[in-house]
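Narrative summary of target 7.
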Amino acid sequence: MPAPSFRLALGGWSAQLSDADYGAYYADAAHTQYVVFKAASRPNELRDRIVASLEVQSDEGLALVIQGGAERIRNADFVGERRKSYLVDVALRLRQ
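Modeled conformation, tokenized:
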């Protein structure tokens, strides 16, 4: 009896989203020195996400895929809220 193959994946990311106001101008008449500055600063939105998946593939072409993850958001929508989201996904696939 053939043994199924397994694949495990783990991934994640972290992001910082800015709600600041920026301005820009050329600092010289030749328009070669472009300056960007922050005009107003507000707290950033911070996001962290982690996802794991497991795939079990049989020799007959049938695969079971299980995926799960979580996301944490601090200062959501730039108004100070905290959110947590979760993901669970189970799929049965026929591969030919």
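The radius of gyration is 23 Å.
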